[in-house]
């Protein structure tokens, strides 16, 4: 059939008319058919507001089936969908308004008084939606018709803008087109063997690529049902796991499950696949999870700009500490940081990626876009990695996390893995602190399981495992590492807090 709206035709339409249950949530159950009737109502409301194809819709609302329907409606109406982290402050929201220049802002009613006037001044329309699916959006949409003429959009048309987490600077809007999302959805659904009989335990946020464009799009495509938890609630996850067949999560989900005595192999007996991403999964967590449940967590590698790039195999060795193999149709190379030449296996370098999954560039940031791509069209991820002899990819760290001390390169991940293996250490983050003599020096920030461990204990354990120039010059113990919503350690925050340490 001739493509009308690329994402709709390839992903949404497969089960649109089916009365099969799609979402089970605190708001009740909804079928695929009823979900898309709701999306049509929302689309008609958007049309009544005078929005036109290509307009941008900024969305900052709590997770709900209605909120997910806003995403579907935006795509089918030809708009550009821009989800925002629900934890952003009003000050932060100002930046996204200025940068994205939306025609419509859908927000939680609690923010209406704080930014409503600003939106009025800028002539930006707004609607409200709260956690209980109440607000002007729901009130007005239910007055609309359930039929809608879907707006044509091609593979290269812009579908969404996702802002990076901002761990390394000002948030940049990654422009994601229809082809990017369709390609990744088709590949992952097949690679992970999703079927319409699957039930996904969904405890992720839907303002992020993991929870929205991976989890939800796969379910749209495969016809799988979702147990749609509003957030990660440990007791609710444990209660619902026996009714699910797949769970997607971040490493924190799995460490918290392992800490709960109610979590065991019987709770997980009906699960066929546990998936982890968005942050590195410790080998210790991977191995302990297998011991407790008999399941090997499947770790994959993705980022805002590229969707998913690689995955451990469904069938075959899921190797702890790695992110598996490049996904079908995606080319991943490791290059030398200095000259850009491709490196052979077992050599650490910058990861560059090419494929239909890779974004178009950064919204209104031409310079940043140009700096991020090679002449032959590869995206420079900023991630450091290496391939094993048999093709498994290991992420070593971020290029921006690279510590240069006395002219020598130090990769934090190498040190972190050694520290994390010490009995009594829960987790660590290694950072570079400015040093007048060496440029930078190594500092290890550590969270303990055993409080009796001392700085000297850590250094003695590392002494014979690390070259002297890699050894931490200072050990700092803190109760917990700062993280963003997706579980990524905020090293920039640690560098700022400990910048005045004298070493």
Number of strands: 25
**Unreliable residue runs:** none
Radius of gyration: 23 Å
Mean pLDDT: 93
Based on the coordinates given, report the CATH architecture of the largest domain: 3-Layer(aba) Sandwich
Major beta sheet, strand line-up: 2-1-10-9-11-12-13-14-15
How far from one another are the termini? Answer: 67 Å
Q: Please estimate the helix content.
A: 25-40%
Question: What percent strand?
Answer: 15-25%
* Sheet/helix structural class: alpha/beta
Can you identify the CATH class of the largest domain? Answer: Alpha Beta
User: Biggest β-sheet, characterized?
Assistant: 9 strands, mixed
CATH homology-level superfamily of the largest domain: ANL, N-terminal domain
What is the CATH topology of the largest domain? Rossmann fold
Shape: globular
Total DSSP helices: 15
Give structural attributes.
alpha/beta, globular, GMP Synthetase, Chain A, domain 3, four-stranded parallel sheet, Rossmann fold, nine-stranded mixed sheet
Description:
With 503 residues, the protein is α/β, with parallel strands linked by helices. The chain folds into three domains: 6-17 and 29-177, Rossmann fold (3-Layer(aba) Sandwich), CATH 3.40.50.980; 232-398, ANL, N-terminal domain (Rossmann fold, 3-Layer(aba) Sandwich), CATH 3.40.50; 402-497, ANL, C-terminal domain (GMP Synthetase, Chain A, domain 3). The chain has helices at 6-10, 32-48, 65-76, 90-100, 112-121, 136-141, 178-191, 210-222, 234-240, 251-259, 283-293, 366-372, 412-420, 455-463, 491-497, and strands at residues 21-25, 28-31, 56-60, 80-83, 104-107, 125-128, 158-163, 173-177, 199-202, 225-228, 246-249, 273-276, 298-303, 307-311, 325-326, 331-335, 349-354, 361-362, 379-387, 393-398, 403-405, 408-410, 425-435, 439-448, 474-477. Helix 11 (283-293) links the parallel strand 12 (273-276) and strand 13.
């Amino acid at each position: 059939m001739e493509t009308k709206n690329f994402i709709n035709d390839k992903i949404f339409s497969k089960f649109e008319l089916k009365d099969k249950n799609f979402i089970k949530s605190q708001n009740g159950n909804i079928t695929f058919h009823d979900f898309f009737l709701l999306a049509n109502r929302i689309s008609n409301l958007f049309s009544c507001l005078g929005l036109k194809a290509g307009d941008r819709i900024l969305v900052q609302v709590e997770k709900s089936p209605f909120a997910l329907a806003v995403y579907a409606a935006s795509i089918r109406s030809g708009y550009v969908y821009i989800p925002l982290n629900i934890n952003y402050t009003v000050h932060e929201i100002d930046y996204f308004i200025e940068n994205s220049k939306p025609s419509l802002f859908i927000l939680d009613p609690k923010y209406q008084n704080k930014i409503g006037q600003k939106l009025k001044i800028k002539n930006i329309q707004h609607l409200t939606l709260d956690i209980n699916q109440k607000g002007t959006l729901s009130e007005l949409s239910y007055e609309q018709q359930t039929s809608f003429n879907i707006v044509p959009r091609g593979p290269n048309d812009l579908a969404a803008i996702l802002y990076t987490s901002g761990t390394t600077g000002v948030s940049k809007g990654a422009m994601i087109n229809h082809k990017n999302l369709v390609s990744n959805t088709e590949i992952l659904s097949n690679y992970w063997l999703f079927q319409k009989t699957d039930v996904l335990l969904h405890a992720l946020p839907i303002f992020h690529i993991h929870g929205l464009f991976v989890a939800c799009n796969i379910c749209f495509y495969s016809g799988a049902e979702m147990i749609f938890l509003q957030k990660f609630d440990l007791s609710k996850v444990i209660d619902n796991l026996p009714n699910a067949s797949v769970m997607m999560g971040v490493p924190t989900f799995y460490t918290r499950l392992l800490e709960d005595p109610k979590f065991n192999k019987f709770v997980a007996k009906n699960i066929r696949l546990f998936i982890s991403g968005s942050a590195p999964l410790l080998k210790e967590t991977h191995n302990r999870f297998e011991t407790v449940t008999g399941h090997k967590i499947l770790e994959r590698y993705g980022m805002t700009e590229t969707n998913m790039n690689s995955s451990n195999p469904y069938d075959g060795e899921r190797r702890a500490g790695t992110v598996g193999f490049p996904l079908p149709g995606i080319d991943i190379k490791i290059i030398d940081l200095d000259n850009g030449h491709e490196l052979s296996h077992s050599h650490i370098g910058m990861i560059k990626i090419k494929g239909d999954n890779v974004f178009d560039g950064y919204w209104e940031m031409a310079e940043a876009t140009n700096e991020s791509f090679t002449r032959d069209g590869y995206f420079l991820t900023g991630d450091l990695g290496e391939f094993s002899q048999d093709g498994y990819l290991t992420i070593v760290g971020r290029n921006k996390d690279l510590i240069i001390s006395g002219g020598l390169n130090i990769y934090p991940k190498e040190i972190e893995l050694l520290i994390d293996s010490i009995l009594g250490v829960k987790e660590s983050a290694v950072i570079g602190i400015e040093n007048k003599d060496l440029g930078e020096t190594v500092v290890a920030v550590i969270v303990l399981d055993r409080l009796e461990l001392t700085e000297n204990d850590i250094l003695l354990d590392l002494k014979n495992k690390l070259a002297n120039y890699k050894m931490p010059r200072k050990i700092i113990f803190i109760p917990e590492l700062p993280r963003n919503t997706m579980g990524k350690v905020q090293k920039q925050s640690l560098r700022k807090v400990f910048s005045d340490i004298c070493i």
